[in-house]
């Protein structure tokens, strides 16, 4: 097991974590500000990926596709917020779960209707094709490094938006006391729509970026959605910082677990049993980590104070 | 109450009449459809202990449904192949007797539910929803990556397991077995709901602080309710495995957890016969819409959305008016 391989796996974990952060940031923001649990967040991820793949295929440019994915996911988010989600803020979580579950069915079938059942493929843009040499003699895909870079940029941008701008101030105020900021004359309805569209756009961005690494197909959003839930539960629901820490933790744990556990168990149980036991355990590892964290910190690592 | 009770009796009679009519008309397929309704209703009655009485929105009950199914599948595959499941402290060759399988399914579901409930119930609200979902995913991925019992491909039950004294291979007999179990679970639900335990559970849903103030710790009664709930859903899983003669990880999937919640809400939250009404409607939708269009899930989504937004209280709520107590 060379250093190069370990560095590569670490970077893979980081890239996975960054992608989870893009999903989890939107989810945790929507929950923190509106108190809404949104299962349909995975659908925005799927919409972003499909929009990017379709537009990139039509125009030949990945970058126009990427812009289209942001626009499509934000538009879908706005539409859904105005038509459905708005009626759910005052309902209990059970109604929210059910309504957004219904939205998943609607979005998935509608996408299948439009694009058929076959997966679409998206090529890595030529500028980012190829690999870079890393210390230790490893080569790493440039595109994956770019995803990590974009994730860091989004994290910094979100931090700036929330702590330094007027909109961010309103979002934070909305988190702590929605009646009060409504009384102060802030149009809370528009604010909610904007937050929801922002979260949807981030999910769409994640979908488009990952679309170039794997096939674009219906149902791709839900496994990621569930991992994003694990992330925000670990991080503390409503906390962007928690989402970042949780996402990197989950990304690294999952990737390194799948890489190391089969090797580790091979030492104890022999190659045949060891590999299957290790693989089975690795697929459960992040949930075990989550259970352990919650057993000691039921509100997550960075509980929101509101 | 009397109007709701009349509707309940009507639903029970309707579910029983369906396979009898199917038999008279020679349309055996409808007996399978009715059996599916009864089994899904049983699973949802199980979830209703946690969700309806305790207000515990478990988004992971597919775990127990699937565990029940796998227990039945694994035990009967060992009995069929005559391979020992374990040889210490005694040789155990599985079983193909339904009562044994049911007991094992309930017991193991309950044993898994105990630690999951103990960790999940430390949290509340959205955390509880997401954690139960995450635990179910953990078991789902375990079932997929563990190759001994079929992994991703699932596990077949070659011959339907038997029940002493009757021939379960006859569709109507198997329906009646499922139907009687459903009625028994409903009776247990009514019994628990009106007991001291049930009163405490419902009080905890309505106001946790007051319940604690009268000296009852909500955690323990909730854990008990969660465990009972898992056991009954596990029993339904064992029955579904026998109906399909097949178990696969899809029984453990998050969509299945979602569907179980859908059954309860479609029928009416907090109602005794809500899960029955919901399961009958759901299977009917699946069958009718599925026959009309390949895209039936799209329309199912629209219907669900309509129910949540405009018809709160589900089918029984629409027919029988508001529940007496929220």
UniProtKB/TrEMBL annotation, chain A:
Q: Name one GO biological process term.
A: amino acid transport
For whether the record's keyword set contains Transmembrane helix, the answer is: yes
Membrane-crossing segments per the record: 16-37, 44-64, 70-89, 101-122, 142-162, 183-213, 225-252, 264-296
Location(s), subcellular: Cell membrane
Q: Name one GO molecular function term.
A: transmembrane transporter activity
One GO cellular component assignment for this chain's record is: plasma membrane
Q: How does it sit in the membrane?
A: Multi-pass membrane protein
**Coiled coil ranges:** none
* The entry's keywords: Amino-acid transport, Cell membrane, Membrane, Transmembrane, Transmembrane helix, Transport
InterPro entries assigned: ABC_transp_permease (IPR001851), BCAA_transport_permease (IPR052157)
Family the entry assigns: Belongs to the binding-protein-dependent transport system permease family. LivHM subfamily.
The protein here is known as Inner-membrane translocator
Q: What is the lineage of its organism?
A: Bacteria, Pseudomonadati, Pseudomonadota, Alphaproteobacteria, Hyphomicrobiales
From TrEMBL, chain B:
Tell me where on the tree of life, at the top rank, the source sits: Bacteria
* Keywords of the record: Cell membrane, Membrane, Transmembrane, Transmembrane helix
Q: Which GO terms describe its cellular component?
A: plasma membrane
Q: What is this protein called?
A: Inner-membrane translocator
Residues crossing the lipid bilayer are 36-56, 63-80, 100-119, 126-149, 169-192, 223-241, 261-285, 297-320
**CDD domains per the record?**
TM_PBP1_LivM_like (cd06581)
PANTHER family found in the cross-reference section:
ABC TRANSPORTER ATP-BINDING PROTEIN (PTHR30482:SF17), HIGH-AFFINITY BRANCHED-CHAIN AMINO ACID TRANSPORT SYSTEM PERMEASE (PTHR30482)
Q: Does the keyword Phosphoprotein apply?
A: no
Q: Which GO terms describe its molecular function?
A: branched-chain amino acid transmembrane transporter activity
Subcellular location, in the record's words? Cell membrane
**Membrane protein topology class:** Multi-pass membrane protein
- Give the species this sequence originates from: Mesorhizobium alhagi CCNWXJ12-2
- Tell me the InterPro entries matching this sequence: ABC_transp_permease (IPR001851), LivM-like (IPR043428)
- Where the protein is mainly located, per its record? membrane
């Amino acid at each position: 097991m060379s250093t190069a391989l370990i560095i590569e796996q670490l970077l893979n974990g980081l890239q996975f974590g960054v992608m989870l952060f893009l999903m989890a940031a939107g989810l945790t923001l929507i929950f923190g500000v509106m108190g809404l649990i949104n299962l349909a967040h995975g659908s925005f991820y799927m919409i972003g990926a499909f929009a990017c793949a379709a537009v990139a295929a039509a125009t030949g440019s990945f970058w126009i596709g990427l812009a289209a994915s942001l626009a499509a996911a934000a538009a879908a988010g706005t539409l859904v917020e105005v038509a459905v989600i708005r009626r759910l803020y005052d309902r209990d979580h059970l109604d929210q779960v059910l309504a957004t579950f219904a939205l998943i069915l609607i979005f998935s079938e509608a996408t299948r209707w439009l694009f058929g059942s076959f997966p679409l493929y998206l090529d890595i843009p030529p500028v980012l094709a190829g690999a870079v040499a890393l210390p230790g003699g490893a080569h790493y895909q440039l595109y994956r490094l770019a995803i990590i870079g974009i994730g860091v940029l989004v994290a910094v941008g979100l931090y700036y938006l929330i702590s330094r701008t007027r909109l961010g101030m309103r979002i934070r105020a909305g988190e702590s006391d929605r009646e009060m900021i409504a009384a102060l004359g802030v149009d809370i309805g528009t604010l909610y729509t904007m937050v929801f569209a922002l979260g949807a756009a981030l999910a769409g961005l994640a979908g488009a970026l990952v679309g170039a690494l794997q096939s674009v197909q219906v149902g791709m959003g839900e496994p990621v959605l569930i991992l994003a839930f694990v992330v925000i539960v670990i991080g503390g629901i409503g906390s962007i910082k928690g989402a970042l820490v949780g996402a990197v933790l989950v990304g690294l744990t999952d990737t390194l677990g799948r890489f190391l556990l089969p090797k580790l168990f091979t030492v104890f149980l022999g190659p045949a049993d060891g590999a299957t036991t290790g693989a089975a355990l690795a697929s459960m590892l992040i949930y075990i980590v989550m259970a352990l964290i919650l057993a000691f910190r039921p509100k997550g690592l960075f509980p929101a104070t509101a | 109450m009397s109007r709701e009770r009349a509707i309940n009796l009507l639903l029970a009679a309707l579910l029983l009449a369906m396979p009898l009519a199917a038999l008279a008309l020679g349309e055996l397929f409808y007996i399978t459809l009715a059996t599916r309704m009864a089994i899904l209703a049983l699973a949802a009655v199980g979830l209703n202990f946690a969700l309806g009485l305790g207000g515990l929105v478990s988004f992971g009950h597919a775990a127990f449904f699937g565990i029940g199914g796998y227990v039945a599948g694994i035990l009967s595959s060992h009995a069929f192949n005559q391979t020992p499941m374990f040889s210490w402290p005694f040789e155990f060759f599985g079983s193909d007797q339904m009562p044994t399988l049911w007991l094992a399914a309930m017991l193991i579901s309950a044993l898994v539910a105990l630690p999951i409930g103990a960790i999940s119930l430390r949290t509340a609200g959205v955390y509880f929803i997401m954690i139960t979902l995450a635990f179910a995913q953990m078991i789902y991925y375990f079932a997929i990556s563990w190759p001994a019992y079929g992994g991703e491909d699932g596990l077949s039950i070659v011959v339907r397991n038997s029940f002493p004294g009757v021939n379960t291979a006859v569709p109507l007999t198997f329906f009646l077995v499922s139907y009687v179990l459903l009625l028994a679970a409903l009776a247990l639900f009514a019994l628990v709901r009106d007991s001291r335990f049930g009163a405490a559970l419902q009080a905890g849903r309505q106001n946790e602080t007051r319940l604690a103030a009268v000296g009852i710790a909500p955690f323990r009664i909730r854990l008990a309710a969660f465990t009972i709930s898992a056991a009954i859903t596990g029993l339904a899983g064992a029955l579904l495995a026998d109906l399909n003669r097949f178990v696969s990880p899809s029984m453990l999937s998050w969509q299945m957890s979602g569907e179980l919640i859908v059954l309860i809400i479609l029928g009416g939250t907090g109602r005794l016969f809500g899960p029955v009404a919901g399961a009958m409607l759901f299977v009917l939708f699946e069958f009718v819409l599925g026959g009309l269009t390949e895209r039936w899930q799209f329309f199912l989504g629209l219907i669900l959305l309509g129910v949540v937004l405009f018809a709160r209280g589900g089918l029984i709520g629409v027919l029988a008016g508001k529940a007496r107590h929220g």
